[in-house]
């Protein structure tokens, strides 16, 4: 992915990869002519309502529990400014730039549908902010995931007004007014309904979901690689991964995970070394034998979450919305439950995938269960501790992942004087999933590091070509077995290999494409 790619934003849905290109890699965006036409058409209807005597929510009334007040036309510009200033009430640590950019892009796409009634000029400012790589400062806390991600989106809308604080393309903290002026971006004085249209969406939680789906797709393949290496290093059998056995339980994710493991283990000298009839074990431990079942369930969870994200990214979320026949109607589509549920579901799958990975690592370090490997894979056990404490690190992360797997979406707390009396907590579900994805990355990195060391210790028997290529990739930044070394930098080096996709690329360079 390159930052010189241009992503067209129109009334239709965006591809997940386009969201990642803009959010993470700085790709430019361009509103399509269709989007401009749709916005201009619906804006006319909003302006009719603004001039009418009949109150219309979000156009000529207050918001939330204050919706009963009809706002005089002379005060409506102030109404929009007040909405954004008061709702930009986030607190806590700064949210990552890629999350904010994903949120901005997804809100722009909803504006482009023409169902929100904003002026094209207002959407153009959001487009310009993305292209100038000016990122509003958004804070960790503030969204209940209902009526949209109100506080996070309000911090973005504040920037559109020329207020608040941004980070520029170089990462410097700047007053928004100063940064916009430098880039020739004219702030907007929000007109009727525009403030509400900018903040009433699920874009923050959806952005975090799309980014997590992208990262987990790579991590699930990595998990198959690390599992295969552990099975090989522990002198396990690959017979249990046979296609006909897997077909007896036809879950699609399980079939893909087992196929990956068969591909990765093909041609292993280590596996061949214990197929001479001398092995007396009848079956392997669950963490080896059931690897495709657990990883497969995680894959199927990912597929379900992707289907939900695809529907959400094709949605037009606002309240009220402008319909094709010109009606402007209140609705409840801003409720984040569909997104919140799958964010939580993924956190459960992540925790379990990390848990089985940690169990395999522990087996390689235990002299009673590792089938001939030295204790803790140490060079001189007792003098050296090997990977003993690397497993502690894994265990600490897995314990944290179990806490992060507790669903946020089952919680609700009423707000706005009981008008908004049931909320999704989808933003919170997204925040904890991001931490969980990082944790899984680290757990898999430690399994890879440990399995590579164990495979080296199985010499002169050679690993399979696919797993051997991964060992070779790890050996570039990390030396092979030997006396104890400063281990934290080695773990971080493998974390970077996992994050970059280099581990998957190394395996595929020899074994061919993996699912």
Termini separation: 20 Å
CATH-level-4 superfamily name of the largest domain: Fumarase/aspartase (Central domain)
Task: Give the biggest sheet.
Answer: 3 strands, antiparallel
Listing every helix as H and every strand as E from the N terminus to the C terminus, the arrangement reads EHEHHEHHEEHEEHHHHHHHHEEHHHHHH
What would you call the structural class? mainly alpha
Our count of helices gives 20
Residue windows where pLDDT falls under 50 for at least 5 positions: none
Q: Helical content, roughly?
A: 55-70%
* Number of distinct beta strands: 9
Number of domains: 2
Mean pLDDT: 94
Radius of gyration: 26 Å
Report strand order across the widest sheet. Answer: 4-6-7
What is the C-level CATH assignment of the largest domain?
Mainly Alpha
* C-alpha geometry: elongated
Proper CATH architecture of the largest domain:
Up-down Bundle
Beta-strand proportion = 5-15%
The name of the CATH topology of the largest domain is Fumarase C, Chain A, domain 2
């Amino acid at each position: 992915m390159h930052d010189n790619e241009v992503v067209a934003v129109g009334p239709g849905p965006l591809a997940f990869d386009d969201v990642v290109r803009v959010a993470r890699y700085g790709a430019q965006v361009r509103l399509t002519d269709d989007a401009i036409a749709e916005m201009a058409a619906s804006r006319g209807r909003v302006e009719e309502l603004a001039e009418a005597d009949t109150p219309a929510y979000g156009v000529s009334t207050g918001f939330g529990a204050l919706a009963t007040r009809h706002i005089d036309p002379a005060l409506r510009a102030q109404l929009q400014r007040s909405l954004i200033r008061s709702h930009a009430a986030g607190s806590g640590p700064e949210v990552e730039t890629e999350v904010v950019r994903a949120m901005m892009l997804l809100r722009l796409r909803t504006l482009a549908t023409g169902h929100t009634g904003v002026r094209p000029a207002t959407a153009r400012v959001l487009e310009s902010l993305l292209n100038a790589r000016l990122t509003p400062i958004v804070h960790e806390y503030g969204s209940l995931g209902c009526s949209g991600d109100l506080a996070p989106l309000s911090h973005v809308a504040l920037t559109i007004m020329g207020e608040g604080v941004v980070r520029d393309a170089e990462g410097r903290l700047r007053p928004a007014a100063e940064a916009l002026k430098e880039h020739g971006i004219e702030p907007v004085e929000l007109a009727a309904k525009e403030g509400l249209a900018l903040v009433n969406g699920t874009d923050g939680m959806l952005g975090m979901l799309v980014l997590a789906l992208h990262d987990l797709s790579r991590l699930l393949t990595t998990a198959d690689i690390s599992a295969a290496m552990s099975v090989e290093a522990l002198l396990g059998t690959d017979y249990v991964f046979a296609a006909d056995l897997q077909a007896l339980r036809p879950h699609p994710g399980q079939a893909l995970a087992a196929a990956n493991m068969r591909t990765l283990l093909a041609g292993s000298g280590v596996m061949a070394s214990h197929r001479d009839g001398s092995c007396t074990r009848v079956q392997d431990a669950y963490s080896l034998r059931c690897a495709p079942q657990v990883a497969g369930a995680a894959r199927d969870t990912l597929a379900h979450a992707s289907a939900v994200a695809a529907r959400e990214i094709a949605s037009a979320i606002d309240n009220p919305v402008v319909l094709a026949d010109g009606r402007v109607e209140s609705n409840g589509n801003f409720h984040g439950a569909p997104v919140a549920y799958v964010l939580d579901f993924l956190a459960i799958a992540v925790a379990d995938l990390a848990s089985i990975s940690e169990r395999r690592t522990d087996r390689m370090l235990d002299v009673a269960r590792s089938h001939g490997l030295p204790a803790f894979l140490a060079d001189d056990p007792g003098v050296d501790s090997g990977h003993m404490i690397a497993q502690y690190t894994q265990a600490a992360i897995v314990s944290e992942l179990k806490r992060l797997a507790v669903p946020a979406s089952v919680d609700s707390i009423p707000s706005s004087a009981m008008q908004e009396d049931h909320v999704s907590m989808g933003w919170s579900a997204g925040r904890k999933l991001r931490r969980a994805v990082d944790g899984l990355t680290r757990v898999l990195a430690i399994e890879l590091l440990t399995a590579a060391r164990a495979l080296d210790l199985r010499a002169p028997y050679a690993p399979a070509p696919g797993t051997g290529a991964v060992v070779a990739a790890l050996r570039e930044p990390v030396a092979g077995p030997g006396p104890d070394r400063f281990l934290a930098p080695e773990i971080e080096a493998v974390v970077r290999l996992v994050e970059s996709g280099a581990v998957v690329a190394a395996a595929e360079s020899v074994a061919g494409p993996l699912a």
